[in-house]
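Encode chain A's predicted structure.
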Amino acid sequence: MSQRIALFILLLAQTTITTAGLAAEAPPALCVPRQDLTARTAGIVTSIHKKPADAVAVGDLIVALDDRLLVAGLKEGEAALEVARASEALAKDGFDRIQRLQASDTLSDQQKVESRLRLAQARAARAQAEAALDRLKIQIADTKIRAEVAGIVRGVPQVKGLFVQYGTSLGYVDATKADCK
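Encoded structure for chain A:
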């Protein structure tokens, strides 16, 4: 992720700066000579899309790790989110009903408080389900190791079924000369 931010900053630095109608080129960007291919999650190598000495463009898939359990968790999380949304809608309806009845003074203070509490709990459950889905989507994305710079692949393992730990180096991509002037 930090390499992506650095590349974004480098691209911004290369844009033309205009001040008082005068155009001036920004100083040349720093060279990003290589991208380390590091496992962002533990898993089993399920597919190898590039081999050493292959050329890659930004975004090319190089290695994929098994994501089946995460995808199953994502489906489960989507179902949990639907339940949370339905619970929130039900709690909102109950809260709205209590609000309408409040004018008639037929409700106790406890009923009002409980209604607010149920709605707050339902909203929190929905937010929690959404956060869990976001986390799973990130974890699934982390099973795909992609090129963040254009260049030549170096040292990628060529063994399907290999188990890798979080942080394991799987090789690197040497940036092409076009990226490093």
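The two ends are 23 Å apart (CA to CA).
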